[in-house]
User: Which sequence fits this backbone?
């Protein structure tokens, strides 16, 4: 395996109708001996409201490559923390293992890599009595796999970004900017 120093990817998978389970992970992949490894090691402490944890599929099932996940949203409730460390963590872990199985992540030299994943989990999920945990799993699983694949492929390429510069715009710019 040629050394992977610094690769980034992101993806968004939207929730089912009536759910707040959109997933928007951002992934950083790199060598344990490079800048990603240094950032990974530096994240082993905790920051109030933004829990950092190793990604595990279940008890005693730490994924490879070693991966730390943290939130983009401040944790305020036990219900939110339970979803993050439960369904979301499991979906993330399953996606990582499946990326290895499918060859998206290289199996050879896997212990020389590490990943950092920032997780979007809408605060409303922890309060939603009708939360569809299957949809929460689905969106996080699909988005994590897609973000990792994009990181490994270098997508979108600069040529794609240039080509769609006037046809794709951020959703927050609707009715603000016309191309």
Assistant:
């Amino acid at each position: 395996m040629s050394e992977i120093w610094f690769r980034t990817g992101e993806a968004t998978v939207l929730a089912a109708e009536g759910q707040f389970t959109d997933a928007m992970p951002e992934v950083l992949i790199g060598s344990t001996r490079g800048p990603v490894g240094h950032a990974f090691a530096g994240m082993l402490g905790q920051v109030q409201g933004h829990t950092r944890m190793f990604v595990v599929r279940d008890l005693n099932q730490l994924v490879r490559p070693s991966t730390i996940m943290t939130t983009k949203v401040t944790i305020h409730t036990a219900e939110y923390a339970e979803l993050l460390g439960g369904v979301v963590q499991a979906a993330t872990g399953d996606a990582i293992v499946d990326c290895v199985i499918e060859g998206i992540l290289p199996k050879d030299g896997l212990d020389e890599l590490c990943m950092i994943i920032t997780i979007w989990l809408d605060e409303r999920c922890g309060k939603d009595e009708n939360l569809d945990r299957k949809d929460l799993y689905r969106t996080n699983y699909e988005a994590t796999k897609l973000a990792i694949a994009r990181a490994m492929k270098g997508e979108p390429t600069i040529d794609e970004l240039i080509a769609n510069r006037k046809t794709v715009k951020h959703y927050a710019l609707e009715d603000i900017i016309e191309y």
